[in-house]
Write a structure and sequence with these properties.
This protein is mainly α. It is about 70% helix and about 0% strand.
């Protein structure tokens, strides 16, 4: 084989003419990574800020709601206390009217009862049913007044029963028991002394304890 026939080895590699892609440099990779990290950090920062704002708004709303609820409860408590005071004042004023009427009517009935029994003692007359037509006009007038006070006193007794306290009703019943009965069959009898005076003072003590807004210690 001649030299011309022998295959030649071209010193130039056919592949050497193909351009290989340029490899990124170390500094380029760092810069790209830094931009990506900075971008991610900026995004995460925005997310965190948004979350913090939402949480803060939620906490603020919750606190505002709690504060509003507490304020409403305090206002309702104040209004209830004011209503209780108004009711207590109205109740004391009404009881004062009832108790005063009772004690006044008791005193009037006691005096009228004394007038009747004193007249009978002086004239030695026994009051009997149907006998009023034969009695002097002066005695009829006394009896008529006594019957009127008897009626008024029983009305006051009823009011104490309805509107008074248990202590007031007990004291009123004991006081009424010292005088002729104000209901049922008409019976003329003397007022029981000194029990009447003691029971009268007992009822005054109840008035002293219940009617003033601040009862004094000596009641």
């Amino acid at each position: 084989m001649t030299d011309d026939e022998m295959p030649r080895s071209d010193s130039t590699d056919p592949t050497s003419s193909i351009d290989e892609p340029a490899q990124p440099t170390v500094s380029g990779v760092r810069q790209s990574t830094r931009r990506r990290v900075l971008g991610d950090a900026s995004f995460l920062g925005n997310v965190v800020v948004a979350l913090v704002a939402l949480v803060s708004a939620g906490i603020g709303g919750a606190i505002s709601g709690i504060t509003s609820h507490e304020s409403l409860q305090a206002q309702l408590k104040t209004e209830r206390a004011q209503l209780d005071d108004q009711h207590a004042t109205a109740d004391r004023e009404h009881r004062a009217t009832v108790y005063k009427a009772f004690i006044d009517d008791a005193n009037t009935y006691q005096l009228a009862s004394d007038d009747v029994t004193n007249w009978l003692d002086v004239h030695k007359t026994t009051f009997k049913k149907g006998a009023t037509t034969n009695l002097p006009a002066s005695f009829n007038k006394i009896v008529s007044h006594w019957l009127s006070t008897r009626h008024d006193f029983q009305g006051s007794v009823n009011d104490v029963y309805v509107y008074g306290s248990p202590e007031a009703w007990s004291a009123a019943s004991l006081l009424a028991g010292t005088m002729p009965p104000a209901t049922g069959k008409i019976v003329i009898r003397a007022v029981t002394y000194p029990a009447y005076n003691d029971r009268y003072n007992d009822f005054l003590t109840v008035m002293c304890q219940e009617l003033p807004a601040q009862p004094r210690g000596s009641c």
